[in-house]
Design a protein that fits this description.
Aspartate Aminotransferase, domain 1; Aspartate Aminotransferase, domain 2; 2 domains; 16 helices; globular
Length: about 425
């Protein structure tokens, strides 16, 4: 195979057809959804005080199951993980102008959830090995306006929560965690997301478990759990207090999960461990096959953590390889490998942040009496994240394909085919 012509030069692709898509829905989910439909109660929420405030039977069953599974006091189901992020930031009592330090290397909803409450996102750089937020970078950004740290367990493994917790405790900050991509991963023998004041998981279609759209928040704090439930379900119509602090951010929404989604999510959660083991098997086979390729660095798993591989994230040593990432990806894709070049666009480079335009056209909340700092976004702010984005990150979306051993073997052989002909790619 080493002498066969690369597909990018007109040769025959090594992987002749698309890899089989990941299919997580089976007869168990069909049965669970059908039972709800035949029962006729698709949602049982009432946006008012009373027994309907906490939702229907399936929602409450799923929440109890999730709390038990992840080992927390409270699990709160929501209709999307974006809703969960918004509720998290609101629940901690964010004031307009408060700063929340987070990572640029994530889906935009992590940062826009902060803006939703008129807070100010502050972007810290990331660790070059785990791709998670760097505690040393976080420490440098803490000011008197900082209210919270918002970590993200990106690609399948936990951020350094021990270091982040130490920073939060030292400065009196809340610690939140977006664990959308890492359900089932462990950190210090407990599940990711559970070390934060509020954590949680995404349940949308390409995650480890999904019910179409959905999310589940986790916390051990009784007061935060209560506030999350209020924000989820029309808080302003439910809260009965004259206490200003209690009324803060009680702008309720319809973030409620339906009974069909809850029933499906419950079935899916029971399958999580199997999904995790499948992704770890894929990653182990890829590691074994790719570790000896010069200039290619396979994923690093942090000490005391496990990885569940939503994305199999690698880095390239371009000087050693002598070929640009763009050229390598072109060659790999031509051979049939679904190579991923962008882990995430750096949020601090998005027009919304560079121009500081969110609510209206006048720069609110940055250009307001609430924001007293000169906040700047743009190139140079997070050099590690920027280099990964622009030059050195290479990934495979394990979450999108089944990848039985024979497909993993094809991917490995394709990488070797390309690497044996790097000189041709250089020219």
């Amino acid at each position: 195979m080493s002498n066969s012509k690369l597909a990018v030069f007109g040769g025959i692709p090594f992987i002749s057809g698309p890899l089989s898509s990941f299919q997580s829905i089976g007869e168990d989910e069909v049965t669970a959804a059908t039972e709800v439909i035949r029962g006729g109660i698709l949602s049982a929420y009432i946006g008012a005080p009373g027994p309907g405030f906490m939702g229907g039977e399936k929602v409450q069953q799923f929440e109890a199951q999730a709390a038990d599974y992840f080992g927390v006091k409270h699990a709160i189901a929501v209709n999307s993980w974006t809703s969960g992020l918004i509720a998290s930031v609101g629940a901690i009592g964010l004031e307009p102008g408060d700063e929340v330090i987070t990572t640029p290397w994530t889906m935009a909803a992590t940062a826009t959830a902060i803006l939703h409450w008129n807070g100010i996102p502050i972007f810290a750089d990331i660790d070059p090995d785990s791709f998670n937020i760097c505690p040393k970078s976080v420490e440098k950004l803490v000011t008197k306006k900082t209210k919270a740290i918002f970590a993200v367990d990106i690609f399948g493994q936990s951020a350094d929560m021990e270091a982040l917790r130490a920073i939060a405790n030292r400065h009196g900050l809340r610690l939140l965690c977006d664990t959308a991509q890492s359900p089932g991963a462990l950190y210090e023998n407990a599940y990711t997301g559970t070390f934060a004041d509020i954590g949680g998981f995404s349940l949308n279609y390409h995650k480890h478990i999904h019910c179409g759209e959905g999310g589940v928040l986790v916390t051990n704090d009784d007061n935060l759990a209560r506030r999350l439930c209020l924000i989820r379900n029309h808080a302003e119509a439910v809260v009965r207090t004259e206490d200003i602090n209690e009324l803060s951010n009680m702008l309720g929404y319809n973030f409620r999960m339906g009974e069909i989604e809850a029933a499906i999510a419950s079935v899916q959660l029971s399958k999580l461990q199997g999904r995790v083991e499948s992704r770890q098997r894929i990653a182990s086979e890829l590691n074994e096959g790719l570790n000896n390729l010069s200039g290619l660095n396979t994923p690093k798993v942090s000490l005391g953590a496990t990885h569940v591989y939503y994305v199999y994230g690698m880095t390239l040593d371009i000087d050693t390889i002598g070929v640009s990432r763009a050229r390598l990806v072109e060659a790999l894709r031509a051979e049939g490998v679904p190579a991923l070049v962008v882990g995430y666009q750096n949020l601090h480079m998005l027009p919304m942040f560079r121009h500081k335009i969110a609510y209206g056209t006048k720069g609110f909340p940055w250009n307001s009496p609430y924001c007293t700092s000169d906040i700047q976004y743009g190139p140079g702010l997070c050099p590690t994240a920027e280099k990964l984005h622009n030059e050195t990150f290479l990934g495979i979306n394990i979450c999108m394909n089944e990848l039985p051993p024979e497909d993993v073997a094809k991917i490995v052989e394709t990488f070797h085919k390309v690497w044996t002909q790097l000189d041709q790619l250089k020219s």
